[in-house]
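Practice record 12: protein with pyridoxal-5'-phosphate.
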Amino acid sequence: MSDDMRAQIGLRPVINVSGTMTSLGASIVVPEAIQAMAAILPQFVEMNDLQRKASAVIARLTGAEAGFVTASCSAGISLAVAGTITGNNLLAIEKLPDVAPEKNEVLVQMGHVVSYGAPVDQSIRLAGGKVVLIGQATSTHRFHMENAITEKTAAAVYVISHHVVDYGLLNLVEFVEIAHAKGVPVIVDAASEYDLKLFLEQGADIALYSGHKFLGGPTSGIVAGNKDLVRNAFLQNMGIGRGMKVGKESVYGVMAALEAWEKRDHAGIRERETGYLNLWKETLDGRPGVTALIEPDPTNNPLDRMRVIISAPEAHITAWDLAAALRSGEQPVIVRDHEVEHHYFYLDPCNLHPGQETIVAARLAEELDKARASNEIIATPIELLSKHRFDGMLRWPD
Ligand SMILES: *Cc1c(COP(=O)(O)O)cnc(C)c1O
């Protein structure tokens, strides 16, 4: 691509078949958001008024009473939790994360304490919340939650994610029912979900979304919900929210991304993505040791991915070595490999520019042909993967 700025500053031209990954720059920002950001950047505005306008757009799209834009969904968790601890007490807001001890406990199911790149529970602790884990990793029952609620309980946080344990836990409707029976507000982390209405409809008091994931907005977080709780979260901008603030371009960029989302040709995009998946399936079917399955998104987003299962004895390469081979070279193809120790990875079509699907297919064929032609089985011990996982980060910026 001639207009690709990456070569100019010496960055590798990544092809992202892993989904909306923060570590790769999240998503392709929609043209409407780019235009909005360029238009507002040279102007002065009254930020609280701009956030009032954002509130109206967020309310319209989510069904919430109010909303605002912050730095990230992670920031949204901290601000929403902080709001439930401080209420609208401006002095308490300035004192965070130190809190008066009477009310700062935040319930979370143990099976929801995952890492989205940082730990869920840390975003609660940053706000002065004391995390109270309920249940066990793979089971939460009503009695766990009912008995955990005390007069110190400020909120209950519910996480929607492919990372959470997906069986044996309380569903959102039950979680809300138990919390509301004792007057406890429910905050839902729905960072990566398409459905902007469902969780509030199911009774959540606050729903949080990332602006930079499926919405294709700038890096940001959306806080939506009950007006008083949203206001109490917004007031944190005079406290811990200061370091999580966004500029005018992000607020206006998110407004534009939300409006574009309303008009987006979701069916057309799905059809295009299905075409990519079919191409990859044709490329992979019939190859020794390779199984390609098209699977729906685990949290019900309207999106399919391809699971590529690799049997090393026949393919002559492990799933993780294949992922590494695709990631190396002039044009890195980065696959979704969270569970690669199970001998599979996923190809996610949602962040491809048209034309890149054929490069992905060609690179898959190339690396698989090369492995088959090798006399040895390419098999790095899986232990080395976890051992070296953070090496690069610990050397940064070198
Ligand atoms: C991505 C993600 C986050 C973090 O979102 P940011 O907006 O990048 O902070 C939080 N929770 C879940 C479930 C996520 O998928």
